[in-house]
Design a protein that fits this description.
The complex is a heterodimer of chains A (327) and B (330).
Chain A: E1 5-20, E2 26-42, E3 46-50, H1 57-64, E4 72-77, E5 80-81, H2 87-96, E6 97-100, H3 114-124, H4 131-144, H5 161-174, E7 179-183, H6 191-208, E8 211-215, H7 219-225, E9 228-233, E10 236-242, H8 243-248, H9 253-261, H10 267-271, E11 313-316, E12 319-321
Parallel strand pairs in A: 3-8, 3-9, 6-7, 7-8
Antiparallel strand pairs in A: 1-2, 1-4, 4-5, 9-10, 10-12, 11-12
Chain B: E1 5-16, E2 19-31, E3 36-40, H1 47-54, E4 63-72, E5 75-76, H2 82-88, E6 93-96, H3 100-103, H4 110-122, H5 126-139, H6 145-148, H7 158-170, E7 176-180, H8 188-205, E8 208-213, H9 216-222, E9 225-230, E10 233-239, H10 240-245, H11 250-257, H12 298-302, E11 308-311, E12 314-316
Parallel strand pairs in B: 3-8, 3-9, 6-7, 7-8
Antiparallel strand pairs in B: 1-2, 1-4, 4-5, 9-10, 10-12, 11-12
The chains are: A alpha/beta (327), B alpha/beta (330).
The complex binds adenosine-5'-triphosphate (ATP) (2 copies) and magnesium ion (2 copies).
One magnesium ion is lined by residues 57-58, 102 of chain A.
Amino acid sequence: MDNTPLVIVDKLKKYFPISKGLLFQKQTGFVKAVDGVSFVIFHGETLGLVGESGCGKTTVGRTILGLYPITEGRVVIENFDVAKAKGVELHQLRQKAQMIFQDPYASLNPRWTVSAIISEPIRVHHLVQSETEKTERVKELMQLVGLSPRLINRFPHEFSGGQRQRIGIARALASQPDFIVCDEPISALDVSIQAQVVNLLEDLQDRFQLTYLFIAHDLSMVRHICDRVAVMYLGAIVESADKDELYEHPLHPYTNALLSAVPIPDPKKDRNRQRIILTGDVPSPINPPSGCRFHTRCPIAKPHCKEITPEFREVGSNHWVACHEIA
Amino acid sequence: MHPLLAVNNLVTQFVIPEGIVYAVNGISFRVNPGETLAVVGESGCGKSVSMLSLMGLIPTPPGKIVSGEAIYDGKNLLALKDEEMEKIRGKEIAMVFQDPMTSLNPVLTIGKQITEALICHLGLTTAEARERAINLLDMVGIPEAQRRLEDYPHQFSGGMRQRVMIAMALSCEPNLLIADEPTTALDVTIQAQIVELVLRLKQQRNMAVIWITHDLGVVAGIADRVNVMYAGLIVEEANVDELYESPNHPYTRGLLGSLPRIDRRRDRKLIAIPGSPPSLLVKPKGCPFRSRCPIGKEVCQMEAPKLRNVSENHRVACWIDISSGEQISG
Ligand SMILES: Nc1ncnc2c1ncn2[C@@H]1O[C@H](COP(=O)(O)OP(=O)(O)OP(=O)(O)O)[C@@H](O)[C@H]1O
Ligand SMILES: Nc1ncnc2c1ncn2[C@@H]1O[C@H](COP(=O)(O)OP(=O)(O)OP(=O)(O)O)[C@@H](O)[C@H]1O
Ligand SMILES: [Mg+2]
Ligand SMILES: [Mg+2]
């Protein structure tokens, strides 16, 4: 890991239009899925992005890779401006930045063999000269992720969930990327398989100096695998810090509540823990609350939190937070 | 203590075109009044099927309860007629299902769904049932309960639907609540709300709970006792403190070793369990964990180990003594 940013995200917004009516669609508003998010990811680093369902994690991941058009703001990956990349540049960007998807079942084409799935990026990016070289490369990749190359002509449904996720990882690695967005790569897997996949991702990172954006809602796993962590709530980042700092000295009341809600697999310790139970549900991103978005559920909210949006500012070394009540 | 429910040697299978699914392969356990029993295990290990078998909710065909008994209040639930089971289900033993959206009726209001059970099981009048329904929704933390009775399931968030399910399950004050992964689809902050709710209600009513989950963190916070399931069998059974302090089955050990901890700095790589669970389409032979087991011996290939006592509150199904690595004698 070094100190030059590989990915720069600046005041990124992604709004999805909502429309009514079938024939004459009338736009009635926006889902403000990502509403002004800024962060950088350094070379070789793993940045964790955590938060509750629907807070915009996947949308951040897809938008920074250019899979969704950017509504506002700027994303730079390896000196490519994602919004402006076209033609050759876009092609290079697609090769350098890849994604591993949330659902190992839905993200693989069921009618393609493993060979076809893994070799697609190799083909698209013309990374080999011949058919035999391509097959060799696919087998190499399968070996790398712990799949037997003998299974090269099988179809996705013939594999278990963990194996399918490995196919997805092999596909992501095929174009020799520098940066991978891992969108909940282990959520759909059984506990006993999760550690296998996490260890694999770590080994590959060491071997190929990969940089990861690791999206997850499992906060224990994020502490394990990430270097830095950013916490999202309703389309915005509310806190970010180096991982041990964040887990040991959380500042934002939402981070505090989130961390205190994670069960610890140790009965004696878990029983004696102070839990902060948040009341109510996450508000809608169509009409997010005014001022601080968290004020409707915040245990320490003051009247001004409803009026003024808190600025995301650095309060300690590398520790950023958006809250009026933090000195 | 007299158990509230005692299950003996339950075997449930499904006959499908590909063959027989050996889903539950002879499990025995009991639940005491007022206690929380957690059932943990990975996807497909038979957690839901074993509970649905008790409740008489296995679709037959393809399902079939091959053997076993489940003694509740002197009656064998597995031998009851449908009408008799109907009286117990929902009233004395209630279940919260894994997926709240599929178990709520989308075309009926929440109010209608709760009051129906109250009218049918407890013989309340419509007005009494409404009153009770409002109290129940209130109790599970649904704001403006009176107004929300008129709403349909899709108008509630996932967490609220799960709370509605719990309200419905508790409506007739059951002696036993079976909660099948009631928080798996929910965020941790909502999960914490539901866990707190169930623990509070359980204490207020001295109700027994069977809580099914694959999350060993959740188990630590809620359970008195734990059954660890693997490939249709209970492989370890202990009170919660003892299970986490001295897991005896290599699978339980493996699971605990492969979990990252939110309360600790990282000190090592995760220890993964190699391989994956066996196919349930193959007739079980030997120990189901043998292909992934780091300490297995020849005997494990031949015969499935039975549960044996480790201590008064702790039983394990393994041929090997975990501390010495030697095959147990006798
Ligand atoms: N293509 C789309 N069109 C319209 N709305 C969308 C679209 N994709 C996402 N959204 C909305 O944007 C918000 C953020 O969704 P997103 O999938 O990014 O959340 P997430 O944090 O990844 O959640 P999860 O943990 O459940 O995966 C949600 O309200 C979602 O409904
Ligand atoms: N209706 C059915 N027909 C055929 N097989 C079934 C049926 N219902 C369950 N099974 C099989 O029985 C086995 C046990 O399933 P069960 O639903 O009990 O698993 P589980 O432990 O609850 O898993 P999960 O954690 O995913 O809910 C699985 O292999 C499943 O595929
Ligand atoms: Mg997502
Ligand atoms: Mg289940």
